[in-house]
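One thing: mind reviewing this one?
=====
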Amino acid sequence: MTRIANLRDPDNPRNESTAQFMAKELRGRYFHPQWVAAMQEEGYSGTLGVLDVVNNFWGWQVVDPTTVRDDQWQAFVDVYVNDKLELGVPEWFEEHNPHALAQIAERMLEAVRKEYWQADEATVKQLVQLYDELAARYQVTSANEKFNEYLKTTLQGYGLSQSAPAAAAQPPAPMAQPPAPSNAPAETVQGQRPEKMDGRQIDDTPLRWLLWVTLLLIVSAPGFPP
């Protein structure tokens, strides 16, 4: 179990489990009407702020599933899809950035597809319909082939046909014709000569980042000595 040093109140520092900290953050911030309304005032950038929250929540789900509960996923649906707070959230998304709402629905369905979230049947049906409708109206696409297959199969399981048509295959471009022969002397083209690269010039920044992330995951793994 991962733990967080909560230093927000310097007079009362606390060492909390990530699950406890996450639950308080969701209730006090991301599911709070004042925070949601503040995001709405930001328009397009506000939609990206909400999408970031869902993406980060998904990240915790994958890295440490013990920090995330099914009812928290459902709360995201209630607030941002079902408009539990009656703030016109779905309409706000469609006005400013419907693609963000579609990506949120995709994240939720990915949690279901990978069996992280045991969502009820009505919620799954609602989310696949929502994504499919947004995809048809706003030309939303996903590069995740497994998700696309899951969406199609799930819609068919509910007796629904996919609204967004599959992208039509483009005919291959015609092959360029070779140029006509010319009597002009051929131009000599010289390219750069390959030079031996000094290994010290290689940018190892990505490797160093990967090392730090790996170390953090090892330290936070269950059973790692304090």
Observations:
- The chain is about 55% helix and 5% strand.
- Confidence is low (pLDDT under 50) at residues 166-179, 186-215.
- Strands lie at 3-6, 14-17.
